[in-house]
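Throughout our pipeline, every protein is held as a single compact record rather than as scattered files. The record that follows is passed on verbatim for readers who wish to inspect the format:
___
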Amino acid sequence: MQGLTRCSQPLRVKHLLRSTYTSLLGKSRFFSATDNADLVVIGSGPGGYVAAIKAAQLGLNTVCVEKNKTLGGTCLNVGCIPSKALLNNSFMYYQAKSTDFANRGIDVGELKLNLPKMMEQKSNAVNSLTSGVAHLFKKNKVTHIEGHGTITGKNEVAVQQQDGKERKIQTKNILIATGSEVTPFKGIEIDEETFISSTGALSLKTVPDRMILIGAGVIGVELGSVWQRLGSQVTAIEYLPNIGGAGIDLDVSKSFQRILAKQGMKFKLSTKVTSAVKTSTGVSVSIESAKGGKSDTLECDVVLVCIGRRPYTKNLGLANVGITLDQYGRVPVNERFETNVPNIYAIGDCVRGPMLAHKAEDEGILCVEGITGQAVHLDYNCVPSVIYTHPEVAWVGKTEEQLKSSNIPYKVGKFPLAANSRAKTNADADGFIKVLGDKKTDRILGVHLLGSGAGELVNEAALAMEYGAACEDVARVCHAHPTVSEALREASMAASIGSAINF
């Protein structure tokens, strides 16, 4: 205390100013028609809201503009979160409905699906998490403004509010985090009842007798699994010769398809949809080989269009500051997520790289750290991907196909879950784990998992790869027994020295 009383006058003023600034940050900011900020984030999805919070924690006066009534973007509202709720609950229903529970000695008697209740649980999870983001904004002193944000100058964002009024924010920096939207299918108009997108697939009022998926990528197989478990006859039509979308290892894809087919999902691969029209009995979908040829017709009640997503940059005002989109509709950025306008940045689904929530979050944190003068680096090879079906599919790093095309010598270690004690005791042993290592250095190049809990286990592989681990490094780490993680150790051992212990 004595030291504080002997502060020089300039130091006292400095402490007073800092105290006053902190005090102001602790209060709700009431913005005028024209406001000032250090950073305006446009979009509150995983990338945007995480970036806004991090920026505020680093001392930036931060504003987050969101066009929707709730925070969280596609992921929290109509994407990752509600779909995982339905995937989890539909699998429980499937276990009870099939012979799974009976084989475990659990007799459930008469079983009935209460779809409205299942949807209610999904909505409760969504509401809890979106309100949680609002709470985090208040806690970290991030100002939330509802409305559509448009960049009107290199240091200005105009927000068109629901009441028709416009608010202008003067800012030192702008971060574009507007995410993505459903890619439309030419000739099909989405009505979210008969022709649905992923959004409509999360809120169907009844279980359709027959559902056709246009696309068997991540979104298709996840949402297709939900409705197949609940009683729909699901057929997936995929243009590619494999399911799972971009980045999946073909060895995994083939086994994954066999398991889903065993569960009841049907597939037509290397096939394209040429038209889909309503009829008196439902929908008539015309298909033919991806290479062309004889056409065929399938009937269904609901068509789910899930051919991917595209960057969302509508009415963003990029032309006002001279930012031009690339050939894929993405905002071009450098390694610091900076556009060609020095103080305007972009992250997430609207820039290069995989459209993943966790990738956007990392980019958001790194971007604002870069704005405040810190180092920026993200190894995209260590960004994991997960398909949340049952069993789950997960991977990080290179596939065998990518290593072959790059002429990189590699070795393979593969371990089946049927030889893993925890998987066997759980009566949940479909799948395997595959580790790819550099043939010369033993460094882990890729890890591919098919099995229950793969989405959790892949993070051990990502951590190992981030630190440049060799296959031997993972093989020599003691793993708890019995756990499914032991299969990753065994696969790493097989990749390193050529053989596992328990297989």
